[in-house]
Amino acid sequence: AHAAELLLTGRTFRGEELARLGVASEILPADEVLPAALALARDVAAHAAPLSVALSKRLLWRAPGLSAEEVEREETRLHLHLFERPDAVEGPLAFAQKRTPQWKARVSTDWPDAED
User: Fold this and answer.
1) d(CA 54, CA 23)
2) Is residue 78 a contact partner of residue 88, using CB atoms and an 8 Å limit?
């Protein structure tokens, strides 16, 4: 019902309401939005494996067209694909060693086939 209201009405939603509905993760004054977004982007770029981020985004955008069982199956398939890559070890190791991770997997070469 909330999704329909968000998508089908032309109503303007205030930040507090979007946070209550689970659409916004944070409410900020307008002049703080861009700096916060850039800080988040920098953090993701430095600390999240690019292949993992790309596959997460893929699943996020595909999920609305899938059943819960299909999402679970695809999520498991993608996790198994990621766990076979060296980045699955590098991320926790870099965190434990308090250093910036050196990601090895590449979206261009390590993208999973349609059915691994």
Assistant:
1) 21
2) no
pLDDT tens column, 20-75: 888 888 999 999 999 999 999 999 998 999 999 999 999 999 999 999 999 999 99
Condensed to tens digits (0 to 9), the pLDDT of residues 80-115 reads 999 999 999 999 999 999 999 999 999 999 999 865
Q: Dihedral sign, CA of 80, 105, 66, 5?
A: positive
- Asked if residue 88 lies in contact with residue 51, where contact means CB atoms within 8 angstroms, the answer is no
Contact 60, 70 (CB under 8 A): no
Phi then psi dihedrals of residue 107, to 5 deg? -60, -40
Provide the whole-model pTM. 0.73
Q: ∠ at Cα 88 (73, 68), nearest 5°?
A: 15
- The set of residues, in sequence order, having a beta carbon less than 8 Å from that of 24 and lying 6+ positions away, is 15, 18
